[in-house]
Design a protein that fits this description.
The chain is an alpha+beta fold and 153 residues long. It folds into two domains: 31 residues; 119 residues, Immunoglobulin-like, CATH 2.60.40. The chain contains one helix and ten strands, in the order αββββββββββ.
Length: 153
């Protein structure tokens, strides 16, 4: 009888651990992520302001202009009406998935983040990319996506 009780206790403990892990990932990874695709601004040419709703706004800039594959990039994110706990940028290749890591940005102050990132060098003469800026605070998560092209010429 004690073996059966021990097995039951182990199974219950495993279920509690797995449930906690799933709940933590479900809530942290943004079951409530708001996806915003920006089509009215060219992030490779200028900074872009995006309305997040409820008087919240974010301005994103990536330099140098043109977002070249061969130079380090500087990403700046400034917000109005909302502060974030963490901000990162992920570059996604459209024609070829380069599996680039997320580049975390460093906090400058309550409303500004900055950091460095890199595109991988592609053999294509022209490549379509999407810059996903991921914004998180304790209440919400946003993924703001900016499509752009890189040109090796």
């Amino acid at each position: 009888m004690s073996n059966k009780s021990a097995i039951t206790a182990i199974v219950l403990l495993v279920l509690v651990i797995v449930s906690g892990y799933l709940f933590d990932n479900w809530t942290e990874e943004g079951y409530d992520i708001q996806n915003i695709k920006v089509t009215n601004c060219k992030i490779s040419e200028s900074s872009c302001s995006v309305d997040l709703g409820d008087s919240k706004n974010v301005k994103v800039s990536i330099t140098p202009k043109g977002i070249p594959e061969t130079l380090p990039l500087i990403v700046n994110v400034d917000s109005t009406g909302v502060s974030f706990d963490n901000v990162s940028v992920i570059f996604e290749g459209v024609e070829i998935d380069h599996n680039l890591p997320a580049f975390p940005l460093s906090r400058k102050d309550n409303y500004s983040f900055t950091g460095r990132a890199l595109l991988s060098i592609c053999l294509l003469s022209e490549m379509n990319w999407i810059a996903h800026v991921v914004l998180k605070n304790q209440n919400n998560s946003w993924k703001v996506s900016f499509p752009f092209k890189s040109d090796r010429n």
